[in-house]
Every structure is written in C-alpha cells, then in structure tokens.
Amino acid sequence: MIKNKLDLIKVKILILLLLFTNTCSLFAQKNYNYQHIVDLSQIWKDVHENFYNPQLLKEINFDSIYQVFIPLVAKVENKSEYHFLLQKFMANLQDGHTEVLYEKRWKQLPDQIDFLPSEFTWVNNKLFISAVDKGRITDIPIGSEILKIKGIRTHTFLQENIYPYISSNTLQDKKRKATDLLTWGHKDSTISMQIKTPDNTTKIITIPYCMRHQQLNFRRDLTGWKGSSIYRYRETDSYLVEKEDYKYYYFRFDNTFALSNSITDIVHDAASRPDSINSADYTILDLRYCTGGSELKADTLLMCFLDIDTLRTYKSLTRKNIAFYNAMGYGFKEYRDYYEGLKMDTLPESIIIKKNLPLFTKPLYILISEITYSAAEDLLITLKLHYPDRAILVGTPTGGSTGAPLVKFLSDGTLYRICTRAPLLPPALMNNGIIPDYYYEKIIKDYIEGTDEVFNYIKQLYKNESKQI
Predict the structure, then answer these.
(1) What is the CATH number of domain 233-314+349-398+433-468?
(2) Is 396 in contact with 368 (CB distance < 8 Å)?
C-alpha cells in the first residue's frame, strides 16, 4: 500500500524507468533487426547488379526469394542462425563462387559456434569418419561408415539439412563442402550418428561440438587414417621417382596458387636438379587437392608444359551496365536488355607472354578430383580448349566453379562474394565440372593404408600409350 505522497512519487519514477528501459530495449532490438535487413538488401542489390547469370535470377525469381527472407532475418535473434540464413539465401544462386563465407565465423561468434572433434571423407559415395579426437578412438573407430545422422539416412540428412546452405552447382562440390559444414554447430550441442565400424559392428554414437578451445588448430588433437586431410595437404612437392624400369617426375600443388611462393622458383628448381624433370619418362602434375588461388600463377605453371611464346586463355561472359542505356530501355526496344538488367558483354581471351620459364616436353598426366577448383580449373580449361593433346587427365570430375568473384563486407565484417564472369565454352567442356579422360577413384583400402595406386594406373597408361607410338 502507498502510504504517502513521497512513496507515490517513487512508484511513478520506477514505472517511468521501467517504461524507458523497455522502450530502449525494443528500440535497440528494432535497430538490430533493421541492420539484418540492410545487410540482406545489400547482398540482393549486389547480386542484381553483378551476378554473371541474370537469366538464372529470372528463372528462380530471385526477388521473391529476397522477399521471403526479409521477415526471416528481421526476427532472428541468434547471430549464428542469422549467418546461416544469409548462407541459405545465397545458396539459391547455385554457384560455388557466390556465397557468404563462414570460415572465420568462429572468431566472430565465440559463444555460439563450435566444432566436432572429428573429420569426414567421402569414399565411393559413402561417408566415413576419417579422423577423430585421440580420446575417442575406442568408441568411434577411424574408418567407420556413417549410415545415419540424427536417425536419418546420411544422404537424405545432407539433402535436407546441409545442402540448402551450400553454394554450388555440382553434386560433387556440395558433398565436399558438406564434410566441412557438418563439423560446425552450436556450442555445447551434440549430434548422433549410426555408424558401421571396420569390423562390421553397427552402433549409435553421440559426438559433442566441443573443440572450440583448439580453434582452427584442433586437427593437432585428431588421429586419422592416412587419407584424411591431416596427412593429405602438403602444399608443394616436386621430385623424381625412380623405379626399376621407368622414371617419372612428380609435381604436387595443394592450394599453392594462392600462396606467396613463386611458381617460377618451383619450376626452375625442377629443371636445374641433377635428377631433373627432363630425365624422366613422363611427368605427373597432381592437382587433386588444389582449391585454386591466382589464375596468373596457374597459367604460369601451364606455360612450362607448352612449347609456345604466348598463352591464350578463354573468352568469358559478364554483365554490362550502362546507366544511359538503362534509361533508354524504358522506351526503345533496342535498349530493352539494358533496362531489364539482362545485357551481357563478352570478355576477350587473356594473352600472356611466356618469359624466363623452362620447357617440359615429357608426356604429362594431370590428377584431378572434386577438390580441384577455381584457378586450378582455369588451367585445365585453357589446356583442354587450346591444347587438348598435351596432357591426359586422370581422376574424378572437378568441383565445377571458376570465376572472378566480387568480394564485399557486411556490417559485422562477414565476407561474401559474387561470381562476376563465366567461361564461354562448349557445354561438354565444363557442364558438370571438368571430366577426366580416365576415371579413377581411390578405394577405402587406399585411404586406410595410406596407399595411392593411381601411380601404378598411370604407369600402365604410359606403357599402353608408348606401345601405340
């Protein structure tokens, strides 16, 4: 009960303070949601102006998709969920270079994002546990096949819960990226899986998202089979392999096209060694784990295998936006494509002068896989388009994404990118990634034992080719 006038004043002040606090909270919340809408709108606008395929925007009705996502991003409060929504929005564009990048999200959301203490690898269309925390090897054996995730068959689970967040236009690329995205989750949550162990025992395991404290160095605490990424990525290798009846020179590039080391130094070193590349019977260029980087570095490497003075690359398509023509399209039919944002421009081939590079003339075999991507595919496109007889491709289809992405930032520092060009090529050249001349895929035994029988396979190809000459 209010006893006096002073108490009444105190009550009124308290009510006013509560009202003010709630109003400020609501105002802050509205500002927070408003910024979400601004970021989404920024992406939508940049896509409309720069994405290389305006016809696709019309086919999928990108404007309607944008309208669907406005209330979704406006009401979401969890920042991790907000980022996943943006990722899902961009995934509608079906392009590997058009996406919201999530690699550094763990730095932005330390209280929300965590990792599984495990790693996954596809082998012959089956998903396996290829690495796991050292303390869990007994109950989660390395090499176990994942039959179900959260009670749902693996392929179905990925189709429904992971693929919608992945920007890609090929299934092999989606599957590759899914193995990474599957390791991301909410801090302190868990995921259940039904697995079949190497001894054919079927059981259900529960794995927590608990590797946050290790951040991106968590793989140091993982033990994996020799086919896992713990052992797989070695950046650059270059050496001569001598057998009893033949010799081959081996180049290996794992994302090296993006690093600072000089391709020129690597190839000159290979040419100058006593056991040089020119003493080999043939050469193997391993691009199975090369995810891209600098197109110029890739072209520099390619020129070392071609007896040419200049290298021609390929033509490509990009958007053409001229404000005056856009305006004229309102009333003049000849400018209608500008007005509707459909006008395209053809970019000419790049012409690169070969200078101070060695020449390697031995037969060339190039190893490729679904991880072969971006600048590595640029190299292969130029090779297959202009010099198809120079090399034999061995492996599985590449990831199927190459372009010059426009990189932009959202208000919280999150990166996103938009593919601005597409190679102008015969459909057969890159309709579903670049198809190898000879299909070869490692089997589970190779991964577990760390063997790589593809080299014996190439030896046989070389012998068969030699007999025909």
Answers:
(1) 3.90.226.10
(2) yes
